[in-house]
Amino acid sequence: MKRPSSPPRRGRALALLGLVLALAAPRIARADDAGAPFEPVEEKKPYEIEAYVETHYQWNFNRPSNRITHLRGFDNRHNTFTLTNLALGGSFDARGAFGRVMLQVGHTPSTYYLKEPSFPGASGTNATSAEVFKYVQEAYAGYRFAKVDGLSVAAGIFLSPVGLETLAIHSSDQWSRSNLFFALPIYHTGVKLSYALSDMIVATLAAYNGWNSVVDDNDGKSIAFDVQLMPLDAIAIAFVYFTGIERPTGAPEGQHWRHLFDLQMLAEAHRRLHFGLHFDGGVEPTRFGSSGWVASALYARVTILEEVLRFALRGDVFREYVARDGADTATPIFWPTKRLGSLTSTLDYRPHRNVSFRLEHRFDSAASDVFYRRQVMGDGSPGSPYVANARRQNTITLGATAWY
């Protein structure tokens, strides 16, 4: 199990996903295997360069006139070839010091950084907004303590430990992300302390600005605790508790602590059959009562041809409860509807170990009109926003990604 120095993905889910992928991979011969010739061990480099490109074409059967596949996350444009994300960066780990920088450009960062707070500047101070930071996926530095084996500290911008899915598509089974991934926090800025209690247990305690904020929009800080367990060779489990004030200063709902509980599990039923479960729920007291949510996602993947062809299914549902007190209603935390769900099927063809072609169908449904269909009213401006007119949408996506 990789120690918690620098997980290169949204929190620790890549380490969990990597367990399952490793279990499915062919066993690598070692020098001490019977009959295996001795080969000198290649010295590990103190740095690694990483890069990936994601591009896709999508058809939305609603054929919206504004060409928007709404509330989808990053594959959000109808009837066009487009660049989902281009990322380039690297990491280093030498003599106890480690760090990681990953830069990006595309629909992916421009979409999820919409949640970043914006503040004006002054004559000698720059303004701050998503435009300043959206090209940064991760950027942190850390130190591994030599006298306390397994203990490390890091500070910077991190991908969130919440959820199973990854920001890089090649490390996920689907091209699109679940509603849980898109709604729940994607990145955090702060400091974290990690400790590997054993090869099977890793715990992390962190202090962050909050959800999706390089610059905080209130005076409070959020606390996160997550633990990663590997009780059996074929099972990996993670639990995250995240709490803090997330509403901006001056919000009518007041400054109350939000509580998030997140459970993730991956299991190998057979070397060609893998399952995943993601459950998330939370509550936030407000002046109008308590808001909250319950969400879950189920995953299954079948390997048809070893390392070449896979088929994956995912289903998710997300229900939000908004506080109300007479005529007063809290601003929703996540959605403009009380329920959102999706069903996704994906065929993954990998002709090369670093290339993946995906063919994906996805069906989205909601409790009220939140999607777009055919002729859409409005022009998208602040004075005339697009008016949602559909509760369902179906899409077909053809995507390609390559990575190094």
CATH class: Mainly Beta
Number of helices: 4
CATH architecture: Beta Barrel
CATH topology: Porin
Task: Tell me how many strands there are.
Answer: 18
Cα-based radius of gyration, to the nearest Å: 22 Å
Number of domains: 1
Can you tell me the overall shape?
A: globular
Instruction: Let me know the largest β-sheet.
Output: 16 strands, antiparallel, barrel
Q: In percent terms, what proportion of residues is strand? A: over 45%
End-to-end Cα distance, whole Å, is: 22 Å
| Element-by-element helix/strand order | HEEEHHEEHEEEEEEEEEEEEE
Strand order of the largest sheet: 1-2-3-4-5-6-7-8-9-10-11-12-13-16-17-18
Which residues form runs of ≥5 with pLDDT under 50?
1-9, 11-39
Q: What is the name of the CATH superfamily?
A: Porin
Global mean pLDDT: 91
Verbal overview:
The chain has 404 residues and is mainly beta. It has a single domain, classed as Porin, CATH 2.40.160. It is built from 4 helices and 18 strands. The chain has helices at 13-24, 107-112, 130-133, 179-183, and strands at residues 47-60, 80-94, 97-105, 136-144, 151-159, 187-196, 201-208, 222-232, 235-245, 257-270, 273-286, 289-305, 309-321, 324-325, 328-329, 339-352, 355-366, 392-403. The strands form 2 sheets. A 16-stranded antiparallel beta barrel has the order 1-2-3-4-5-6-7-8-9-10-11-12-13-16-17-18. A hairpin with a 2-residue loop joins strand 16 and strand 17 (355-366). It is globular. The relative contact order is 0.16. Mean pLDDT is 91; it is low at 1-9 and 11-39.
